[in-house]
Design goal:
globular, 124 residues, 0% helix, mainly beta
C-alpha cells in the first residue's frame, strides 16, 4: 500500500531552520514526482515546492524561494524540505504528496497520494 509519512516539524523561532522529511513506502520514488504543500489556519492548502522523479527539476513558490530547498534520496525513499530563515507566516501544517508521473508542479489537484502532515510553528 502506498504511504507517505512526514516528520521533522516543530516549534522554531523566527530566523531559525527546520528540515522536514517525507518517507515513502509501497512505491519507489524513482518514477514519481513529490510535492510539499502547506495549509495555515483559515487558508487554503498551497504548493510550496516540487521535485521530479529524477531530482533534475524543482519548483518553488515565490514566498519560499531562496529560503527553502527540496531534495531527495531515492535509495532511502525519502524527500527532504530544508527550511531556513523561517518567518511566522510559514506557520502551517506541511504535507508531502506523490504525483504518479515523473514531472509535476505546485497544484493540489495534480497529486494522487497524501501524507498526514506535520505541524510547523514559527514563533518567538
Amino acid at each position: 500500500q502506498l504511504q507517505l509519512v512526514e516528520s521533522g516539524g516543530g516549534l522554531v523561532q523566527p530566523g531559525g531552520s527546520l528540515r522536514l522529511s517525507c518517507a515513502a513506502s509501497g512505491f519507489t520514488l524513482n518514477y514519481y514526482a513529490i510535492g510539499w504543500f502547506r495549509q495555515a489556519p483559515g487558508k487554503e492548502r498551497e504548493g510550496v515546492s516540487y521535485i521530479s522523479s529524477s531530482g533534475s527539476s524543482t519548483k518553488y513558490a515565490d514566498s519560499v524561494k531562496g529560503r527553502f530547498t527540496i531534495s531527495k534520496d531515492n535509495a532511502k525513499k525519502t524527500v527532504f524540505l530544508q527550511m531556513n530563515s523561517l518567518k511566522p507566516e510559514d506557520t502551517a501544517v506541511y504535507y508531502c504528496a506523490a504525483h504518479l508521473s515523473p514531472f509535476g508542479g505546485l497544484w493540489n489537484s495534480e497529486y494522487d497520494y497524501w501524507g498526514q502532515g506535520t505541524q510547523v510553528t514559527v514563533s518567538s
